[in-house]
Each structure stands twice: as C-alpha cells, then as structure tokens.
Amino acid sequence: MSQYAHVPKSELDEGQIRELEEYEISQGPLSVLQQSVRNSSQVLISLRNNKKLLARVKAFDRHCNMVLENVKEMWTETPKGKGKKPVNKDRFISKMFLRGDSVILGKAHIYLIACFY
C-alpha cells in the first residue's frame, strides 16, 4: 500500500490505485474524518469564512465534501461603531452538505473530563 506512494498514478493499475487511496484515507489527513464516521465522534472544522463547525461526519470524499449531522455553527460578529464589543454567535443545523473547497482544517474534538479529589 505505502509502496505505491512514490509511484506516479499513471503507472499503477486500478487495484493498486484503490489500495493507495484506502491507505491514504486510513493513514493520512483524511483519517480524522474516517475515524469520525466509524466512531460517530464529533469533529471541529474551520472554514474559509472564519466560521467553525462542530459536527458528526456521516460521509466524505477525497475533496473533503462532507455530509454532516448535528452541526453547531459558531462565529464572531463585530458590530460597527466605536466601543462595541464582538459578539459570539452560534446556530444548530440538523443536516448539512459541506463543499470541500471551504474547508481549511478538520480536528478531532475531544471531551476533557476533569476529576477533582
């Protein structure tokens, strides 16, 4: 699988290309999305419009197009005028298709549990 990483795709047959793509999805940057699909865990996604999405990934492709579920969209609005403070806003979206060209970063969301003794 990884032995095909440095070979031009034009020199590979269909089976080898499929193996290489499966390897890249399971070991590369898309592995975060793959784990989210398998475990139904949340992913924090940063977008080009400076918004963030906290969601569960149901499906994705190599272009980072995604089908998302239970999406919390978060952003900051800066009011115009002097002395006004930025306001954090959010909204809930039950299902969403996200086009991959707007994705900057996807990060596994980990819940931290604090224990006090």
TrEMBL record:
Entry's localization field:
Cytoplasm, Cytosol; Nucleus
| Extent of the signal sequence | none
* Annotated SMART domains: Sm
What would be one Gene Ontology cellular-component term for the protein? spliceosomal complex
**Residue ranges of every copy of the Sm domain listed in the record:** 30-112
Q: What does this protein do?
A: Plays a role in pre-mRNA splicing as a core component of the spliceosomal U1, U2, U4 and U5 small nuclear ribonucleoproteins (snRNPs), the building blocks of the spliceosome.
Q: What name does this protein carry?
A: Small nuclear ribonucleoprotein Sm D2
- Where does this protein come from, organism-wise? Cryptococcus wingfieldii CBS 7118
